[in-house]
Design a protein that fits this description.
alpha/beta, 3 domains, globular, single chain, 16 helices
């Protein structure tokens, strides 16, 4: 996902387009930004906690269990738990890491609240506590995302960040941070180093704030300084101006070919070691992933079976023929995958596609870039477009998950002609894991992502897999489907 953002050229202006805080009010906002952000996030979590506790209380009353005491102290303790895991900084971490920290905070809160309360009926209390934790996680995640989006729009989210150095890596990183403000680092400009003398004519996506040689003259408020070179970091920190004493330093290395989430650092003598591992390849993690697939897929399949029956009836009314079909895709370890889908196209779809591409060169170029068409002549009117925009045609793949052919979360299985456009190394990595119904690509760019975006986001998922990331993607699938952004 990070590589996808890095390749997008962006204007100097903020992504939101809102510039009201960037002039006369800048000093005021610099002083109170952290307080505004923390207050907004705390308010959102308080609302989520009130809703979660209320729903749990209603559930307890309807099932004959003793409802929990709704105490303001409990909500205050939850906010304290989130504060301790650093959810209210407003300068990161990434959305995936925030989700993990939120889960840890909720677990600590529920466990402590349960142990301190010493309930008489521990079994029923544990059940209510678990339901409360689930409500807190879901409502807190979505409400927090809405508040974060609003803060990004108001240019309040993200610490002011200067990039030390004007080279290609710094410019690439600046574009990435501008493209993904949710990362919490808001780039405001570059600081020139002695190595940038030959780059004075280079086009910078942000203003030049000054040079390291006269850093004391820089007037902007900088919370983070990012370095691409350990040499420049050592030289700068040995004699940096007093006004940067509260600034935090980041040494950034391009590691798109390695795991970038959940890294651990270790001191080995006088050296710094970075520990990484491929969690998705571990046997016990594969078993855990399979357990979660069965735990969720079976009840969801039972719940949506009436919806599948109604959609099948609507398909047959529009175009006679089978309502469902089997589509051959490339599965794990190149095993042919018989993937179940509801039909969204005419029975003679392939003939219609061939004729359309022969008549329309622009559509032919679009097809070979995305393997999707904005205006697809094969799609059934009304019902076909509706199912594709809402991804309801994918519901029968729950059977593939139950059978073990697919997972709920993973890289989408592609046809062989699509896979042939990728290089051999990426195909080997992609086919080493089980494909999924939803994935990183589906909750971000969906059909708007070309082959390069698909490759970057699939690699990001495979190399950074964790249980937290899977649950995060499942939660993000709901707004992605409801918005229908990028669906074709």
């Amino acid at each position: 996902m990070s590589e996808a953002g890095a390749i997008l050229p962006l204007p100097v202006a903020s992504k939101s387009g809102y510039t009201g805080w960037q002039r006369g009010d800048a000093g005021f906002i610099d002083r109170f930004r952290k307080l505004i952000v923390a207050t907004s996030l705390i308010s959102g979590d308080s609302i989520a906690a009130i809703v979660a506790v209320s729903l749990s209380g209603a559930l307890a009353e309807n099932t004959g269990l003793e409802p929990p005491d709704t105490k303001h102290l409990s909500i205050a303790f939850l906010i304290l738990a989130f504060f301790c895991v650093r959810l209210y900084t407003g300068c990161g971490p990434s959305p995936y890491e925030r989700f993990r920290l939120r889960t840890i905070g909720i677990a600590c809160f529920v466990a402590t609240d349960f142990l301190i309360g010493f309930p008489v009926d521990k079994l029923s209390s544990l059940l209510i506590a678990s339901v409360t934790a689930l409500h807190l996680l879901i409502f807190g995640h979505y409400i927090g995302a809405i508040i974060r989006t609003l803060l990004i729009h108001l240019d309040l989210w993200g610490a002011s960040t200067a990039l030390v150095g004007c080279g290609g890596n710094s410019r690439k990183l600046a574009r990435l941070l501008m493209c993904e403000p949710a990362l919490g680092l808001r780039p405001i400009g570059f600081i020139e180093t002695s190595r940038d003398r030959d780059l004075q004519n280079a086009m910078l996506p942000l203003p030049l704030l000054g040079a390291t040689a006269d850093a004391s003259r820089i007037q902007q408020h900088i919370e983070f300084a990012i370095f691409n070179s350990a040499y420049e970091l050592a030289a700068f920190t040995s004699n940096f101006p007093e006004w940067m004493s509260s600034c935090r330093f980041l040494l950034v290395k391009d590691a798109h070919d390695f795991q970038s989430l959940w890294l651990r650092t270790r001191m080995i003598g006088g050296a710094i070691g970075i520990e990484m591992r491929r969690d998705l390849c571990l046997r016990h993690h594969q078993l855990l992933k399979r357990f979660i697939d069965i735990l969720f897929a079976v009840p969801i399949a039972l719940l949506v079976s009436p919806v599948i029956a109604l959609l099948a009836l609507a398909i047959k009314l529009v175009d006679p023929g089978p309502a469902a079909y089997v589509q051959l895709r490339v599965g794990r370890n190149t095993t042919p995958l018989r993937m179940f889908k509801l039909r969204t196209m005419y029975a003679d779809a392939e003939l219609r596609l061939k004729e359309h591409l022969n008549r329309n060169p622009q559509a032919n170029a679009e097809w070979h870039r995305f393997f999707k068409l904005t205006q697809d002549p094969r799609v059934l009117p009304i019902i076909g477009n509706f199912m594709r925009r809402t991804s309801l045609d994918e519901l029968p793949q729950l059977l593939n998950v139950i059978r073990g052919d697919m997972s709920l979360v993973g890289p989408r299985p592609f046809p062989s002609y699509h896979m042939n456009y990728f290089d051999d190394e990426f195909r080997a990595v992609r086919l080493s894991v089980k494909p999924g119904i939803t994935g990183m690509w589906q909750v971000s760019s969906r059909s708007n992502g070309d082959l390069q975006v698909q490759k970057a986001q699939d690699l990001f998922y495979i190399r950074n897999w964790s249980l937290w990331l899977d649950i995060y993607i499942l939660l993000q699938t709901v707004p992605a489907v409801l918005s229908a952004k990028g669906a074709r």
